[in-house]
Design a protein that fits this description.
Layout: H1 2-10, H2 15-36, H3 53-59, H4 62-93, H5 101-113, H6 116-129, H7 136-160, H8 164-172, H9 177-206, H10 209-214, H11 222-230, H12 236-265
């Protein structure tokens, strides 16, 4: 049935042209940005020759280094904490029928459905109403909450794909719930955990809207720093930073995808 529907969609006149135009519209600007990050001159529209000049400038910029360290630190902590919380939520909701199960799932995945600007404004109002000073801590808390559903979904999918008879057999052999978890459940969940952690890490590392609203003095992350540079004009230096972030995100997403597929086949 699904294949028939796909054939019907492709049968529409001009579908192929529209699809190609859509792909070009999405990815040509990115390819253009990456290409001009290797431009020897300062122009972002006139090619002056191939050079790694702007990458050297990026690695020698102390402001970019400080922002990158902040971003990596926040992303690492946020991904780790959100993955632990997501693991607990997945263990509590999968294969456990209880009243309010649908509400619990909707609550956990709610940040995925709400526009990010709404989450950012709500986080800002929450911190201000409690009198919490904006800075590194508020960014970290906001990122942890926002990243939970991104870590939760891969972990839940992996847990749902596990054979429940394995844990039942271990329990029949007088294995305590804690021992069963450490010896059976957790090792089988590793692909889902790593996949969820990587997705949460990427989301935190690339986030701009939430960070821009809840950040304070001295807590600038790399996306916010890039935005500040763009206000002075687009330069190949900005292209170089963006290209590095793009490559890093692609690599992490590929690893997460491979682990996700490995988890489904194992």
């Amino acid at each position: 049935m699904a294949n028939a529907r796909m054939k019907d969609i492709r049968a529409f006149s001009g579908f192929g042209s529209i699809a190609v135009a859509g792909v070009l519209f999405l990815y040509l600007p990115i390819l253009f940005l990456c290409a001009y990050s290797f431009n020897d001159g300062r122009s972002v529209s006139q090619w002056s020759g191939f050079s790694f000049r702007w990458y050297s400038t990026v690695f020698g910029n102390s402001g970019i280094k400080a922002a990158a360290i902040n971003s990596l630190t926040i992303a690492t902590i946020a991904a780790s904490v959100s993955s632990v919380l997501a693991l607990g939520a997945a263990l509590a909701t999968v294969n456990n029928r209880f009243k309010g199960e649908a509400l619990a799932y909707a609550t956990l995945t709610f940040p995925l459905m709400v526009p990010e600007i709404v989450t950012a404004v709500a986080s800002l109002v929450f911190f201000v109403s409690l009198g919490i000073s904006l800075g590194f801590g508020t960014i970290l808390l906001a990122h942890i909450v926002f990243c939970i559903p991104f870590a939760y979904l891969p972990i839940r999918a992996r847990l749902e794909g596990m054979d429940p008879s394995l844990s039942a057999a271990a329990a029949d052999l007088y294995g305590s719930p804690i021992r069963v978890f450490w010896r059976i459940t957790l090792p089988l969940l590793v692909p889902g955990l790593i996949s969820g952690w990587l997705l949460a890490f990427i989301i935190s590392l690339d986030d701009f809207i939430i960070t821009a609203l809840v950040a304070g003095p001295g807590a600038t992350t790399l996306p916010v720093h890039i935005y500040g540079m763009l206000r002075l004009g687009i330069t190949p230096e900005v292209n170089a930073i963006s290209t590095l972030m793009l490559i890093g995100s692609i690599v992490l997403l590929m690893i997460a995808g491979v682990l996700g597929r490995a988890g489904k086949t194992s």
